[in-house]
């Protein structure tokens, strides 16, 4: 009898192990945790964008029924610690002090100024109104360019400037390419554009929540976080509590999208209060608190210069950025635009490149990572301006891309930004996408509608993107001045019955990693998918990890998992050989068992070996009776998923309404572990990219109040707002590690916004439109058409959210008519 | 305090609550029905959706953050925890969400499932557009809704083929293989030296 060959788990559309508790409501969200004697926190927040605190009187709150304590920032000053920024991107990056609760000055609306601790949530909230805070308002600065101007009010007066840093990459100086100045001097075509990325709010549907339990002399922190290990390290580093006395648990976490890649004021305040009272405490934010206090994303201005020859060859690219930091620096705030710095050249063979980013403080909520983090911004800029080049040359926009992209036979390719792209096939993904899309037919329909002067015009948008995933090689992070490494750790524990526990340092929060990882481990160890369980998100169980963000949990964590499994197999092989009375060298691991070469029926499974090791009655001399193994993987490079996204939009030129007619994406994320999960990640990612293009915008009024402070004003798309997405894949494995995976979590978000905006611009170009501020709300689109047609647009100062507003989002929006000095010689 | 007598997931409860108590907090904090969650404070997200009977005795979807507990007096309420049949056999909509990958983080899922069940009660054979409109009071940030729409279709087909829910003869969901994160219930902590 020959052994049946089990179908490999990797590549199967396994249904998710995670779902059972989620569809029955038996999930352990942080907010679900209750403990004996649990106290509830409510936080009083600043109504001013900038003010000196001249007094905080919490005495009346302390007298309220059921109130245990109330504290001002000064009351907690000696124990609350500080919130650290882990990524000062330059030697002279300005690092302002960031206190969890303000003591003497508030710098954005929503900053915590006092906290009430009560028996129940309602009593805590009620008592907030009894707190008296006196403020002396200070001048507010919201606009990015105004903040850099001489004489601007200062967000941090002690720093003497609103500039946080200026970070430069120049291919001429770095030796990775030519000089953009020379390219511009010699250029046949120079195109300059300004693009503005509106401020977004990550908005996981689970609000953030934290429970701190000091019972028994150890501090256990339950938090809805993406990064329990980093929270533990930084609590220890900033509060004086020894690291081994802190346990951080991320229970089930309801989405992150970067919004929970954070160390938060609320975590630090809860930690301080629990220590002070020696009682367990809980804080769960309201949605309004989430929107004003949790970090935001994007919010930057890009001045882009593209130089090219008449034949369509791009000769140089310059990106000058001004990025809004907000009032303080979150854990990676300064680094977010820098994550995009290596991606403006995208899939193209540009010979010269220069990137300059200036980070600026304003009196707004801090910005930080949001899905894609720097890479959506880069992709948007380059994919928008490639379309402008196509218009300038009278070429089809895909043809311009073809003339500049790296051909499949040219991999591995060292880019002008100094990265080595290991693999990719842009032609294959594009050809597949074009066929699925029906590109030529849609172009024909577009011509017909133009000729007929149809009030509803059709536009086609392209986004051929790549991204860098698998954050990140530690030496690269070190070179970029990031404060930690980018490795990931996994241990594998083999139980006596042959079941397997995998302990992961990466910390999932909804993606489905437990399922995908189980598939990998099942193949690696020859055990059934069902026999693998994954433990994560608790520093007592998983003491070592760098957590989950940046499409790293498979591309880095998955590799560590393979390495740990290899070690288990190596150990087990010695025992299996002993049991089979064979030499280890004569054994091979095939079809899920250790088999004697040439005699495959002589075999031992991992379960056989596990039981023998458990008994330990008959082991080879000097062999430890255990199979457990641990591995830490530090990637040598990034991975580079890519793909082609195509969008057709119908634009009603009379109302400005945009309807997505067709959306096709073909992504190449390397080897796929679970196609079902990959498809889900693409859908969700594309939805968030479309949301930036069409719907979402965080808007401040001139006093610094967030006027999109609830889900009634901040427009998250519903099912009725989004199209059916046609998604497919090509598969070009990564060559830099054994799994071949590249990462998929951020791809859709990175690709989608430019595809949608390019489509709308394409529809409206005959009307003289070449720029519209995102989001492309009906009013923004309509007003832009009116302006392009020479019509005056009635101003409506009462309206702000999602409207045409030059100063929306506190950025220096360029308005609908960006400087377009494009043109030939 | 106000008296509330309400049947939730088949169990009758009698309680004294503050009149301002929202149904969602009554369910969570008083009854331990933690499957029903809060995602916003403006009734936009729908994460807290449950079914509550009206005067006609028919249960319809309500956002339990927008209902006072006292308004549920004398009514019946079904939460996601009461949706499965006896012996834990899942409702076809629950199973379809699993089988069609209609959830990722799962936070919106209880509300999304309850809204979908109600949608199918009103319209057993909805079109794509009707599903998208029908669940547009529920926000999901993970899925882009596409597989949710697919799941509702799949459930509709199964319910049409097999009669009313829950489907008794459907194979039971194997809860035993489901993984959980590495969290133990908060145990008495060891005394640190």
Structure characterization notes:
The complex is a heterodimer of chains A (825) and B (193). By secondary structure, chain A is of the alpha+beta class. Chain A is 28% helix and 22% strand. In chain A, the strands form seven sheets. Chain A has a seven-stranded mixed sheet with strand order 3-5-1-12-9-10-11, sandwiched between helices. Mean pLDDT of chain A is 95; it is low at 797-825. With 193 residues, chain B is an alpha+beta fold. Chain B has two domains: 2-82, Roll (Ubiquitin-like (UB roll)), CATH 3.10.20; 86-170, DNA polymerase, domain 1. In chain B, 28% of the residues lie in helices and 14% in strands. Chain B has helices at 23-30, 92-99, 109-122, 128-134, 146-162; strands at 2-8, 11-17, 49-53, 59-63, 76-78. A five-stranded mixed sheet of chain B has the order 2-1-5-3-4, sandwiched between helices. In chain B, a hairpin with a 2-residue loop joins strand 1 (2-8) and strand 2 (11-17). Chains A and B meet through helix 1, strand 21 and helix 20 of A and helix 2, helix 3, helix 4 and helix 5 of B.
Short description:
With 825 residues, chain A is of the alpha+beta class. In chain A, 28% of the residues lie in helices and 22% in strands.
What characteristics describe this protein?
heterodimer; A: 825 residues; alpha+beta; Aldehyde Oxidoreductase, domain 4; 7-stranded mixed beta sheet; 5-stranded mixed beta sheet; 28 strands; globular; disordered C terminus; B: alpha+beta; Ubiquitin-like (UB roll); DNA polymerase, domain 1; 2 domains
Fraction of residues in β-strands of chain A: 15-25%
CATH-defined topology of the largest domain in chain B: DNA polymerase, domain 1
- Output the radius of gyration of chain A: 28 Å
Biggest interface reads: A-B, 81 and 72 residues
The main β sheet of chain A shows up as:
7 strands, mixed
Rg of chain B to the nearest angstrom?
A: 18 Å
* Low-pLDDT stretches of chain B: 166-193
N-to-C SSE string of chain B, H for helix and E for strand:
EEHEEEHHHH
CATH architecture of the domain at 422-467 and 639-811 in chain A: 2-Layer Sandwich
Tell me how many strands of chain A there are.
28
For the terminal residues of chain A, how far apart are their CA atoms?
78 Å
Helix content of chain B: 25-40%
- Strands of the widest sheet of chain A, in order across it, are 3-5-1-12-9-10-11
| Main sheet makeup of chain B | 5 strands, mixed
Q: Helix share of residues of chain A? A: 25-40%
Secondary structure class of chain B reads alpha+beta
Residue-averaged pLDDT of chain A: 95
């Amino acid at each position: 009898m020959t052994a049946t060959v089990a179908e490999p788990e990797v590549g199967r559309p396994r249904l998710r192990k995670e779902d059972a508790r989620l569809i029955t409501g038996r999930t352990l969200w942080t907010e679900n945790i209750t403990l004996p004697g649990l106290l509830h926190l409510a936080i009083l927040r600043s109504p001013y964008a900038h003010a000196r605190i001249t007094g905080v009187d919490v005495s009346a709150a302390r007298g309220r029924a059921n109130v245990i304590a109330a504290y001002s920032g000064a009351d907690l000053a000696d124990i609350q610690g500080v919130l650290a920024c882990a990524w000062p991107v330059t030697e002279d990056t300005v690092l302002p002090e960031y206190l969890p609760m303000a003591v003497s000055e508030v710098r954005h609306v929503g900053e915590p100024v006092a906290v009430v601790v009560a028996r129940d949530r309602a009593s805590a909230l009620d008592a907030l109104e009894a707190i008296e805070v006196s403020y002396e308002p200070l001048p507010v600065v919201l606009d990015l360019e105004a903040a850099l101007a001489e004489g601007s009010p200062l967000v941090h007066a002690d720093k003497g400037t609103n500039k946080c840093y200026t970070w430069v990459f120049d291919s001429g100086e770095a030796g990775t390419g030519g000089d953009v100045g020379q390219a511009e001097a010699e250029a046949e075509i120079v195109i300059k554009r300004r693009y503005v990325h509106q401020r977004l709010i990550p908005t996981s549907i689970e609000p953030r929540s934290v429970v701190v339990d000091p019972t028994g002399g150890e501090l256990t922190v339950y938090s809805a976080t993406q990064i329990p290990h980093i929270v533990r390290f930084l609590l220890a580093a900033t509060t004086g509590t020894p690291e081994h006395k802190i346990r951080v648990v991320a229970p089930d976490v309801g989405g992150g999208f970067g919004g929970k890649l954070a160390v938060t004021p609320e975590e630090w305040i809860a930690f301080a209060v629990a220590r002070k009272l020696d009682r367990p405490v809980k804080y769960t934010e309201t949605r309004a608190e989430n929107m004003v206090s949790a970090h935001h994303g994007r919010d930057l201005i890009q001045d882009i210069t593209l130089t090219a020859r008449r034949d369509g060859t791009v000769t140089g690219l310059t990106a000058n950025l001004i990025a809004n930091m907000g009032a303080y620096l979150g854990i990676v705030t300064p680094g977010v635009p820098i994550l995009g710095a290596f991606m403006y050249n995208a899939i193209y063979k540009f010979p010269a490149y220069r990137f300059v980013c200036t980070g600026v403080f304003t009196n707004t909520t801090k910005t930080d990572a949001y899905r894609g983090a720097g890479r959506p911004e880069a992709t948007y800029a380059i994919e928008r301006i490639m379309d402008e080049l196509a218009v300038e040359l009278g070429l089809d926009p895909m043809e311009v891309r073809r003339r500049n992209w790296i051909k499949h036979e040219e991999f591995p390719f060292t880019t002008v930004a100094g990265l080595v792209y290991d693999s990719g096939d842009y032609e294959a993904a594009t050809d597949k996408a074009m066929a699925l899309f029906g590109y030529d037919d849609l172009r024909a329909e577009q011509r017909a509608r133009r000729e007929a002067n149809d009030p509803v015009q059709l536009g086609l948008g392209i986004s051929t993107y790549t991204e860098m995933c698998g954050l990140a090689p530690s030496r690269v992070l070190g070179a970029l001045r990031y404060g930690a490494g980018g490795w990931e750790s996994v241990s594998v524990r083999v139980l006596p019955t042959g079941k397997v526990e995998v302990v992961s340092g990466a910390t999932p929060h909804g993606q489905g990693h437990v399922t995908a990882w189980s598939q990998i481990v099942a193949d690696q160890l020859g055990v059934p998918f069902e026999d693998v369980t994954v433990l994560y998100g608790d520093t007592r169980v998983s003491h070592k990890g760098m957590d989950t963000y940046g499409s790293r949990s498979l591309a880095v964590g998955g590799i560590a998992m393979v390495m740990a499994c290899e070690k288990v197999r190596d150990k087990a092989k010695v025992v299996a050989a002993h049991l089979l009375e064979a030499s280890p060298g004569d054994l091979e691991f095939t079809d899920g068992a250790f088999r004697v070469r040439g005699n495959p029926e002589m075999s031992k499974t991992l379960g056989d070996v596990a039981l023998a090791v458990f008994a330990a009655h008959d082991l080879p001399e000097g062999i430890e009776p255990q199979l457990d193994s641990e591995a830490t993987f530090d990637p040598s490079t990034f991975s580079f998923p890519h793909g082609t996204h195509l969008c057709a939009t119908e634009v009603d030129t009379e109302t400005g309404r945009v309807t997505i007619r067709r959306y096709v994406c073909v992504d190449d994320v390397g080897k796929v572990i679970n196609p079902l999960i990959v498809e889900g990640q693409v859908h969700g990612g594309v939805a968030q990219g479309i949301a930036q293009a069409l719907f979402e915008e965080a808007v401040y009024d001139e006093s610094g109040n967030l006027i999109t402070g609830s889900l009634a004003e901040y427009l998250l798309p519903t099912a009725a707002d989004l199209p059916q997405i046609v998604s497919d894949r090509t598969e070009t494995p990564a060559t830099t590690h054994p799994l071949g995976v590249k990462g998929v979590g951020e791809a859709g978000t990175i690709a989608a916004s430019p595809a949608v905006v390019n489509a709308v611009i394409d529809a409206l170009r005959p009307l003289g439109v070449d720029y519209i501020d995102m989001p492309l709300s009906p009013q923004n689109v309509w007003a832009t058409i009116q302006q392009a047609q020479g019509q005056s647009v009635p101003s409506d100062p009462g309206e702000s959210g999602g409207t045409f507003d030059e100063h929306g989002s506190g950025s220096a929006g360029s308005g609908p008519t960006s400087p377009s000095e494009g043109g030939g010689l | 305090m106000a008296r509330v007598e309400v049947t939730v997931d088949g169990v009758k409860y009698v309680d004294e609550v503050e009149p301002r108590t929202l149904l969602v907090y009554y369910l969570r904090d008083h009854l331990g029905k933690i499957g029903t969650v809060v995602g916003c404070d403006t009734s936009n997200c729908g994460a807290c959706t449950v079914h509550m009977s009206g005067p006609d005795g028919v249960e319809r979807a309500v956002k339990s953050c927008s209902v006072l507990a006292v308004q549920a007096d004398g009514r019946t309420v079904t939460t996601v925890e009461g949706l499965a049949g006896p012996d834990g056999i899942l409702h076809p909509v629950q199973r379809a969400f699993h089988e069609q990958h209609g959830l990722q983080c799962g936070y919106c899922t209880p509300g999304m499932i309850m809204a979908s069940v109600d949608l199918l009660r009103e319209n057993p054979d909805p079109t794509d557009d009707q599903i998208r409109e029908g669940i547009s009071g529920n926000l999901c940030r993970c899925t882009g809704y596409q597989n949710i729409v697919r799941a509702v279709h799949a459930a509709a087909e199964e319910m049409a083929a097999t009669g009313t829910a829950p489907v008794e003869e459907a194979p039971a969901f194997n809860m035993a293989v489901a993984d959980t994160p590495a969290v133990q219930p908060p145990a008495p902590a060891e005394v640190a030296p």
